[in-house]
Amino acid sequence: MSIVLVTRIFALVGIGIGILGILFRLGSIMNRPFKQDLARAQGSSTRGVLYAFTLGMAPWEKESTAIHWIAYLRGILFHVGIFLAAAVLIASPWLNLLPGWITWTAAVITGASALLDLAGIFMRLRDPNLRVLSLPDDFAAILITSAFTGLACATLIWPAILPAFYVLTGLMAAYIPFSKIRHCVYFFYAKFFFGMGYGHRGVIGQPEGKYAE
Amino acid sequence: MQTQTAINTFIEETGSWVASQLEACTRCGMCAEACHFYQATGDPEFAPVWKIELLKRAYEQRFTLTGKLKLALGVDKPIHDEDVLHWSKIIYEACTLCNKCSMVCPMGISLGPLIHDVRTGISKAGAVPADLMAAVNKQMEEGSPLGVTDDVYNDRMEWVADEWEVELPMDQRGADTLVVFSSIEIMKFPENIAAIAKILHKAGEKWTLSRKGREVVNFGFYEGSPERTKIIMGRVFDAAKELGVKKIVVTECGHAYDALRWTAANMMDVPAGIEVTHIVALLGEYVKTGRIKLKQGAYNDGAITFHDACKIQRRGGHIQEPRDILHILAPDSFKEMTPNREESICCGGGGGVIAIKEADPIRYAAFELKIDQIKKAGAKTVAMSCSNCRLQFVDCVQHFNLDVKVAGLSQMVADALEE
Lengths: 213, 419
Ligand code: SF4
Ligand code: SF4
Description:
heterodimer; A: mainly alpha; Fumarate Reductase Cytochrome B subunit; 9 helices; B: alpha/beta; Rossmann fold; 3 domains; 4-stranded parallel sheet; 3-stranded parallel sheet; 22 helices; 7 strands; 54% helix; globular; binds iron/sulfur cluster
């Protein structure tokens, strides 16, 4: 068996563990009682959910993102890099078929994303508030995700790195259920509930008021 | 103290909704700067995400493998008595449950309700700050935290009726609307009662007051005790049922509105066919439908701004109505503060904080953010629709010796009614 095949299997096993772990966690949450909001609606929950997943994430909509636009931009860019690295992983058996400009564009984005992600370590150490809040998992998550995007970048430039990318993928995927990286799943739940709750109350996403202007 | 009861409560409170919120947190720290107490003091313990730490710890240690492992390895500590006491100070003295942090969290985590859950656990453990608990007990025993007993209520209402020459219908069966004031209005801002009575008469509303349901304030809700919250809300609902009204109007009180309008249905059997609304919604409707007419530009001399109350605007959705009204009353002089609406900065006195003497220094410190906002807007008058905010404003205007007028929106509307 070639090293590529062995490491690919390793990656697949890791991904399998990751998916199972997330499903297990999700299952135990879903088994907990869910209380529906029985108060009479004042606005539309659907509009609230739509708003939460669209305009609500726009930088100009929130004072906090407008003020902290560097942190916002960093967050957007390194998440784009992670998704792109995942795409590189899926396309990994056929990377040599990609046109050169796509390969190089993807390499630049994933490389930049790795650096921006890594910057999170310094941000956490520098900011006194973040320092107090941070747990070892925060640093581990940054290290492993920036290694993931960094290796995706390296694989695009030097295809021989692919086995290392697979090994890292396997490790990262298996680590997800135990780390805060699992927010990639729970984000959708929290945002959905946010949109539903505040839409129901007529605070966000409604035709009248701020969002109709 | 019963720490285990607190832990059990945290676990009970952690349904799928709470659990998914806790799981989504990335510890990014963005919520910290949303909190006026953190902004005013820079104390990392006042970061909203830190305020829910006990809930998170209880959840993880009970439901997750990582939490159990961390506990077994000694990386994480179980919750002790001193933790409960420590967090009691943080979440009662340095949190107004304003929910601004939710609006800022990139994940959309509803921190306000989660902090309320922490209060529930701590209240069950018997670790509520003494001042707040004294007010709760007073309300349970006398019906009001400010001592508005039956006799006091009768006297005050008679006096208001005489002083402002308004009619205050009492215990009128067959009325459509029950109006319930807060003891802050009854004792500190009685002019609000007269103002609202004047507006209701002008609008031709068939309304009544009730001796039984005479207090809308709910200190059980501040405390986080579901049992006491229900008992106190029950007094208002029972009165409404007995009088056969179709609507309960909560006057200028934010948290009482949050309790009766949004929480009651999820906590207890609320009488069918009775709608709960806030006075600001009613005013908006009266103006929109022409039931009352206001003098255009009645307040056009000197810049005027509006303070959004956390429980009425940010959590209650009545963001537009006060603005529609102020655009009539002060078309040229109305100025927004920044940030405003659902992102507005809390006054720092809500959530029971103003009732806790030990919280005074941080309450005043938090208000300095508001002073800055008012100055930047160049406002000489600040209008608002919550009497708890108004109490904080009046106290802070005096404390900081500010040249700012504090006005209740209902009072402004009443003074600007077209004859
Ligand atoms: S802003 Fe939201 S995700 Fe970030 S630390 Fe606060 S609660 Fe957690
Ligand atoms: S609810 Fe308000 S006071 Fe409480 S932590 Fe959040 S921002 Fe601070």
